[in-house]
Each structure stands twice: as structure tokens, then as C-alpha cells.
Design goal:
Strand content: 15-25%
Bound molecules: 5'-deoxyadenosine, iron/sulfur cluster
Shape: globular
Distance between the termini: 44 Å
CATH topology of the domain at 3-126: Rossmann fold
Structural class: alpha/beta
Number of helices: 12
Largest sheet: 6 strands, parallel
CATH class of the domain at 3-126: Alpha Beta
Strand order of the largest sheet: 2-1-3-4-5-6
Radius of gyration: 22 Å
């Protein structure tokens, strides 16, 4: 049997696309291998959101040349980086051993591109700039039997000044409500208990396409699907988070009490430069509203440090808002200029050591808050969806609470079981306990 290996960089969208590529390859008779040396085909699904993802990809691609020399595997590269002309040119010139290049809008064509390459033995390139279509009927090879990603929309219309996504993923396009509901019903029928609804900005689901429904309405309908016990979603742009969504979250018993609400900066001046369309006051009043309606909500966020012109005062505003909201977790990034974005031409005026120092201050403060927020779980029972054994300690089971806290515990549960765990200890990044 022929074997494939996929390397995925970046976000859940990319993970979901890789699951779809896996399914296409399985249907073509390939099986997955963890060992690249044995692969007949390697797929590298790239991310362009920050420069370090670019660098890691090119580093790995260089390394693959030697492996290809030994095993003659086909190398296919796809994902967000392939939507950038200068990257594709660079690959064609410096990495001519790449056999197939395809863009984010050409995913569904992968089997025919592979067939063409196998027939002609020549490089095959297929990159479409954008598409108004969402291709239905591409199944995913599911990594887990009990949880699944469900893409509800693609693309983004927001053009935050630092962000390359609207250029690589194109304009916002929502899937039809019925297609989404059918997919989730069939997942539920096959034993899936948790779904993660994916979109760059789920809060604007259906708006640009005028498809006559909204994200809160969709949530209410998904909440009615028998067998789905946990509904999560990502990502929510604060500017589009409606009162109706807060109501839907508090009404729907299967919608988890966790919200990822990227703030990016606590300074209104920087937020304006980022084109985020809210200021710190608006963000804070939104958080107040959410906490008033859903008192046990867990909030997480994304923060960028070192956006051009960020002063010590701006950064102090970020630390202040973190201390006020007390997020359970934050993904923190150092600003990375991306070609083609609005902020790309802004002068990088903050010395690297200043950015580094700010970044480490931010990490320290957030770590302390994340730790302190965990104390409330001590000596309580929490509901956990067991995800199987811990990767590092065989005898320890691992899972997540409804509010997305990681729990490591002892017990007898199997992956996919929803059980109760008594929390007896807390660590910086997880809770510890025993199955009841
Ligand atoms: N530099 C640093 N971080 C970025 N992000 C997006 N673009 C950039 C960039 N150019 C971060 C944002 C976003 C997350 C997915 O990645 O915080 O919410
Ligand atoms: Fe990028 Fe902003 Fe769109 Fe998120 S909302 S994908 S940060 S442009």
C-alpha cells in the first residue's frame, strides 16, 4: 500500500484542510505513515500568518530534498503561503524538486492534480486567486472519533492592518445552514460528542452572503442536534459580537462556556492603527456584558506585542486590560510584518530587546493570572471529556472541561467518555485530579 505523510502548520482551519486531504488520499488507496522516510507522498500544508511559520516551512522543505533523493517521494505544498506570488516564485526557483503546488481555493482539485503529476511526471501548479464557491462534499479523515471540526465559513472581510489572512483565504463566504446541520447530524450519528465550529470570524456568519440566518440562530439549531453535547466555536471578532449571541450562549445548554475573544492590544491608539474597529472601553464593556449574562464564562484572547509605534504607555494599557479582564489564557505573538498588508510599510521602530522584554513581562503576568484563575476549581468536581492517555505519562488520562481547562487525571475512562473529575491540585497550565 502506498503511504502518505502530512505536515500541517498554523491554525485549526489548516488542520481541517489537512483532514480533508487525508480523506482524499485514503480514498485513493494511500495509508498514513508517521515516518517520512517511508512516504510515497509528502504534503506540506503551510501557514503565512507570521514570519516564523514561513521560516520553519522553508527550513523543512530544504531538508526534504535529501529524503526525496533516497525515497523518490512526491512533494506537494499547499495552504496559505501558496496564495502569495513571491513565495510560489521562490519555490519554483529555489526548490524545483517540489512536484505539486496548490492554493487554498484548489483543495478539492488535489486528487486530479496528483493524477496529472503521476501521469506526466512533470510539476503541476494550480493556484486560484479567490473563489466565491465553497465546495461541499469533501469529507474529512477524522483524527478523533468523539470530536470534530466543522468549517462554517471561509475567508475574512476585516482587513486588520497586520493580517495576511484576507489575502490568502479570500473574501468571507458562509456555508449554507442546511449543509452545516446535515454534516453535524451525521457526525453525531457516528458518535461525535463535541464539535468546533470554525471561521475566521464566526460572528459575521451569513451576513456577507445574506443567507437569511445568523450565527446565534445557527448555534440554537446545532444545540438541538441529538448526541452533540459540547459546541465550541472560533474565532469571534469583538466588533461583531452581538447581544443575541450572548443570549444564545447562555440559553443553549450544549454551547460551552468558553469564548475566545482576541483583543490584540489594550491601547485604543494601537487598536485604531490595527483597524480593529473597537477601542479598549468598548472591549471592556463587552466583557462586562458577557460576564453579567454568563457568570461562569471562561475568556481567552490573542495579543500582539510590538506593533509599530507601540510605546511603553500603550503596552501598559495592554497589561492593564489583562489584569482587568483576567483571561484564563492568552496566545501571545510578537508583531511580524507581512507582505501585502496595510501595516507592512510601517517603520519597525521598536528595538528588538524592548519587544522581547515586553513580551516576557506579558507572559509572566498572564501566567500568574492563569494560575490564580485555576484556584476556584480546587476541591470541586468538574465535567471532563476524556481525550485518552497523556502523551508524556502513560498512566495519566487527559481531557477538557466545558470551559476548556486541560485536566490530567487518574481513572479508568476511555477517550470520548464524559465523566466527573475531582480536582485536587492545580498547575500553571492544567488541573490535576481523580475520576469520581
Ligand atoms: N504578527 C503577529 N501576530 C499576528 N497575528 C495575525 N497576524 C499577525 C502578525 N502579522 C495573530 C493575531 C491573530 C492570531 C491568529 O495571530 O493575534 O488573532
Ligand atoms: Fe486576520 Fe483580522 Fe480577519 Fe482575524 S479578523 S483573520 S486578525 S483580518
Amino acid at each position: 500500500m502506498k503511504q502518505y505523510n502530512i505536515i500541517t502548520y498554523g491554525c485549526q482551519m489548516n488542520e481541517n484542510d489537512s483532514e480533508k486531504i487525508s480523506k482524499m488520499l485514503t480514498d485513493l488507496g494511500y495509508c498514513s505513515t508517521g515516518n517520512i522516510n517511508n512516504a510515497d507522498i509528502l504534503i506540506m500544508n503551510t501557514c503565512s500568518v507570521r514570519e516564523n511559520a514561513d521560516d520553519r516551512f522553508f527550513g523543512n522543505l530544504g531538508y526534504m530534498k535529501n529524503i526525496k533523493k533516497k525515497n523518490d517521494m512526491i512533494i506537494a505544498v499547499c495552504g496559505c503561503m501558496m496564495q502569495q506570488e513571491h513565495i510560489v516564485t521562490q519555490i519554483k526557483q529555489k526548490y524545483p524538486y517540489v512536484d505539486i503546488i496548490f492554493g487554498t481555493h484548489n483543495l478539492h482539485q488535489f486528487p486530479s492534480l496528483l493524477e496529472k503529476h503521476l501521469k506526466t511526471k512533470k510539476p503541476v501548479y494550480e493556484i486560484q486567486n479567490s473563489t466565491d464557491e465553497i465546495f461541499e462534499g469533501i469529507d474529512s479523515e477524522r483524527r478523533y472519533s468523539y470530536k470534530a471540526y466543522v468549517k462554517i465559513m471561509q475567508g475574512c472581510n476585516n482587513f486588520c492592518s497586520y493580517c495576511v489572512v484576507p489575502y490568502t483565504r479570500g473574501r468571507e463566504k458562509s456555508r449554507k445552514r442546511q449543509d452545516i446541520l446535515n454534516e453535524i447530524t451525521s457526525l453525531a450519528n457516528s458518535g461525535v460528542k463535541e464539535v468546533m465550529l470554525l471561521g475566521q470570524n464566526v460572528n459575521s456568519y451569513g451576513i456577507a452572503d445574506n443567507i437569511g440566518t445568523s450565527f446565534p440562530s445557527l448555534l440554537r439549531e446545532v444545540n438541538e442536534i441529538k448526541g452533540i453535547e459540547r459546541i465550541r466555536f472560533m474565532t469571534s471578532h469583538p466588533k461583531d459580537l452581538s447581544d443575541d449571541l450572548i443570549d444564545a450562549m447562555s440559553e443553549c445548554s450544549n454551547v460551552c462556556n468558553h469564548l475566545h475573544l482576541p483583543i490584540q492590544s489594550g491601547s485604543s491608539r494601537i487598536l485604531a492603527l490595527m483597524n480593529r474597529k473597537y477601542d479598549r472601553e468598548k472591549y471592556l464593556s463587552l466583557v462586562d456584558k458577557i460576564k453579567a449574562k454568563i457568570p461562569d464564562i471562561s475568556l481567552t484572547t490573542d495579543i500582539i506585542v510590538g506593533f509599530p509605534t507601540e510605546s511603553e504607555e500603550d503596552f501598559a494599557d495592554t497589561l492593564d486590560i489583562i489584569d482587568t479582564v483576567r483571561f484564563d489564557g492568552a496566545y501571545t505573538f510578537i508583531y511580524s510584518p507581512r507582505k501585502g498588508t496595510k501595516s507592512y510599510d510601517m517603520k519597525l521602530d521598536i528595538p528588538a530587546d524592548v519587544i522581547k522584554e515586553r513580551f516576557s513581562r506579558l507572559l509572566d503576568i498572564q501566567k500568574k493570572i492563569s494560575e490564580e484563575n485555576k484556584f476556584k476549581y480546587l476541591n470541586t468536581a468538574v465535567e471532563v471529556l476524556c481525550e485518552g492517555r497523556s502523551k508524556t505519562e502513560w498512566e495519566i488520562l487527559t481531557g477538557r472541561t466545558r470551559d476548556n481547562q486541560l485536566v490530567n487525571f487518574t481513572g479508568s475512562a476511555n477517550a470520548g467518555d464524559i465523566i466527573e473529575v475531582y480536582i485536587s491540585n492545580t498547575k500553571s497550565f492544567y488541573l490535576q485530579g481523580k475520576q469520581i
